[in-house]
Amino acid sequence: MQHHDPEALAVGLLSVSRALVDGISAGVRARGFDDVRPAHGFAFARLAPAGATITQLAEHLDVTRQAAAQLVDELIAKGYVQRSRHPDDARARLITLTGKGWACTRAAEAATADAVRPWAAILGEDRLRALEHDLLRIAPHGPLRPTW
Length: 148
Known about the structure:
2 strands
């Protein structure tokens, strides 16, 4: 019986994760969005499609409300998000993607496809689908992007 090496597995996953983030980031920059960072992409994932409050974004990013507010201020200044009245809570503001934010999100999706495409050549389509399935099964909170 073969035993797995938890450290080797963790190092491999972290290495692949880093390469994936770097590949997506490079692809987004190559598509003309050179003023965003990977942290912005994690915020965009929570904001799509219906937006979020600062509190919801802070929880998603696991940062303080102040840090989330600073990130939102930065993204507003760059034209990627906007604040508006919350339809259900007069005290809250809803943060949503602008047209530029959606264009950047589409660029990130294309960059993700480009970054993952070589994996099929290495693993084969069947093993790649199995890997996707297995990773989503063990992800503690499900897929990163909210389902819609």
